[in-house]
Write the structure tokens for this entry.
Amino acid sequence: MENRPLPRPDAAAYDAARARQNQLTKPPGSLGVLEDIACRFAAWQGRVKPDAPNPAITVFAADHGVAADGVSAFPQAVTAEMVKNFAAGGAAICVLARANGARLEVVDAGVAHPLDPALPIVHARVAAGSANLAREAALSEEQLEASLEVGAAAARRAVDAGARLLVAGDMGIGNTTPSAALICAFTGHGVDAVVGRGTGVDDAGLARKRDAVARGLARVAGRALTPRQTLAELGGLEIAAIAGFYLEGARRGVPSLVDGFIATAAALAACRIEPLLADWLLASHVSQETGHALAIAALGLSPLLDLRLRLGEGSGAALCLPLIAQAIALHNEMATFAEAGVSGAA
Ligand SMILES: O=C(O)c1ccc[n+]([C@@H]2O[C@H](COP(=O)([O-])O)[C@@H](O)[C@H]2O)c1
Ligand SMILES: Cc1cc2nc[nH]c2cc1C
């Protein structure tokens, strides 16, 4: 993946959009966060009236060696089975993509079970799952770079297809464990504050998860690792692909709407690799997974929704798409006080 620096959003367009918001026929500030969203799109697109976001959703799937330690409520085979469900249009994210008119692409970044090459997805499997982060580096340096590039290539396809907003989804049995490890490593928060029940593990499963994360963190403790090395040690193939996706989107001047726990862990890693990325991200929702609110706060973001979701796949982000479309429509189409002949504040 390229290391070209990221552009900065256009501050003059942001200010012009803010001035427009203050002239629209409503008390200034009365549309709250929707005003901020519209102004940020103005800055991202470098124009006072931004185009509709034309969102693209890419779901990255991969498996995790740490699943062998009993950290998920579901068997590893579900990752591949769900990829088939994505391809058949039956998963939650398929419904939400259709409901929102969003492009949906599914990428095999590293599913353990072989998938039929005829399956209508992007076959970009870097490895048959990651290694067990509790014992060894989850990814080699080469696997990390290849996964970042899988994500970057997906972002290029989405942007080339006309997307002005990117959504990454994840699918990977066991992936809340590497995500928790990354959030602990990048924020300094402790295991108990970050590790949660994922797909719904029982108390014994939760204890195994905490232990796996603690062992992974102990392996890297005291080593002066770069953010890339931390991502390789504790991450996963789809998590690194999502990081590469966000980075390449921003490099192309296209923002991303960050989904739940796994996507946020990927965003944190990507922001540590390239701090300017933070200006190109919006947080969709706060997941029920323990530690997600802490991770979003560490990115300096505020979630739009709290619907007690804990699904992944990009579903929380997809649910925010109508809000974003409406924030931009209001900004672009409302009359100003002058246009409507309405008196301004006294
Ligand atoms: O995104 C979230 O906030 C989220 C929270 C809990 C679980 N998930 C999904 O559930 C799977 C991981 O859960 P687990 O228990 O196997 O680690 C994976 O496929 C994720 O997409 C996702
Ligand atoms: C069925 C199922 C669907 C999912 N979608 C994202 N993570 C998931 C985990 C499971 C177990």
User: Anything to note?
Assistant: The chain has two domains: 11-50+330-340, 56-324. The beta strands are 56-62, 103-110, 122-123, 166-171, 256-258, 281-283. The first helix runs from residue 11 to 23.
